[in-house]
Design a protein that fits this description.
Layout lengths: L7 E3 L8 H5 L6 H6 L12 E2 L10 E9 L6 H6 L8 E5 L11 H9 L4 E4 L6 H7 L3 E3 L13 E3 L3 E3 L2 E3 L4 E5 L2 E5 L4 H23 L6 H7 L9
Parallel strand pairs: 1-7, 3-4, 4-5, 5-6
Antiparallel strand pairs: 2-6, 3-7, 3-10, 8-9, 10-11
Helix pairs in contact: 4-5
Length: 232
């Protein structure tokens, strides 16, 4: 017979990006960050900015603080409020459960009061108008008015798997209207270094398109090479 687990397990933070590292991701599109990670890093496309088409804020970049609640529970997310540092993004896993909301306007309001700049979950949210009033950028799978419980067990600060990505407290979260990208803590400096190259290439291509580019030259070269065959 299994022993009953404690209602909460809290892991003290062991890593956090420097302010310079955090600043390097501000106002950077998620697509650029994913490109700097070889085209990877994004959570499942079901996790989208809440209300991005209705005037709600939909961009945030900051360190993750993780909470694992389990299906239909919110105890760990509530406990995580105590450990939020200014600039954190609260990443709250419910194991992908869609049967009720993960949080609503009160918890997002408290998270913002604690200094959080964003909220990410793999379940639905509720209280749309209240969340809009709070103004905390949030990413979720949709809306569901059903209520969660506060029974536990849950964890704060431990790794969580959310949207197909493993997220550890201290990883960088970069989120916007396109979705949510996770930059593992150990890769932050390497990604920052590659971001400058990505930005240079992206802005140069943007300029070419604005000036009338129709087909990239490398594609034209391929079409004229022996690597393309034509058939009638």
């Amino acid at each position: 017979m299994l022993e009953e687990p404690p209602l909460l397990k809290v892991k003290r933070p062991a890593q956090r990006p420097t302010q310079a590292q955090i600043d390097a991701f501000q106002n950077t599109p998620t697509g650029f960050v994913a490109d700097a990670m070889d085209g990877l890093g994004a959570m499942d496309a079901q996790i989208q900015a809440l209300g991005a088409g209705f005037g709600l804020p939909y961009a945030a970049a900051g360190p993750a603080l993780t909470a694992y609640n389990g299906p239909a529970d919110v105890l760990a997310a509530l406990a995580a409020l105590k450990f939020i540092q200014p600039g954190d993004i609260l990443v709250s896993s419910v194991n992908g459960f869609q049967g009720c909301a993960t949080v609503g306007d009160r918890i997002t309001g408290m998270a913002k009061n604690c200094g959080a700049i964003g909220f990410v979950t793999d379940g639905p949210m509720r209280d749309f108008e209240g969340v809009a009033k709070v103004g905390l950028p949030s990413w979720c799978t949709g809306l569901n008015p059903n209520s969660p419980f506060t029974k536990g067990p849950g964890t704060v600060g431990f790794g969580v798997n959310i949207g197909g990505r493993q997220v550890e407290t201290g990883d960088m979260i970069v989120a916007d209207r396109d979705g949510v990208v996770v930059v593992p803590f150990a890769q932050i400096d390497a990604v920052i270094a590659r971001l400058e190259q990505v930005k240079t290439l992206e802005y140069a291509l943007d300029k070419e398109v604005e000036e009338g580019l129709k087909v990239p030259q490398n594609i034209l070269d391929l079409l004229e090479s022996d690597q393309t065959t034509y058939h009638d």
